[in-house]
Design a protein that fits this description.
about 100 residues; alpha/beta; three-stranded parallel β-sheet; 3 helices; 6 strands; elongated
Length: about 100
């Protein structure tokens, strides 16, 4: 009838996920229009990658490249873990290439 008067009414109930990994869906994102800023900022640091016209997004703390904005840089090779369909299409249309890491 009224369960709230019985012991154990208040508190946690239901199923629990004991092996929950809070970092499982951690995927920092970067838009295409910000790639040129990263390219110019890292020119001094990664001379080897700059000579190959390559940008490693993961070294800058991002995993995923999204397609918002314009890709105004020269044809570059962009290395990341995940690309959205729109971002991959824009990069390839501009003459660049994508690599999954």
């Amino acid at each position: 009838m009224f369960d709230k008067y019985y012991p154990g009414y208040f508190g946690k109930k239901g199923m629990r996920n004991y092996h929950k990994n809070k970092q499982q869906k951690f995927c920092p994102e970067l838009n295409i229009d910000q790639i040129t800023k990263i390219y110019l900022a890292n020119k001094e640091n990664n001379l080897n990658d700059i000579a190959q016209n390559r940008i490693r997004i993961i070294k800058n703390g991002f995993f995923k490249v999204l397609g918002k904005g314009r890709f105004s840089a020269k044809p570059l090779t962009i290395v990341a873990k995940v690309f959205s369909k729109k971002a991959a299409k824009k990069i390839l249309k501009a003459g660049g290439t994508i690599e999954l890491e």
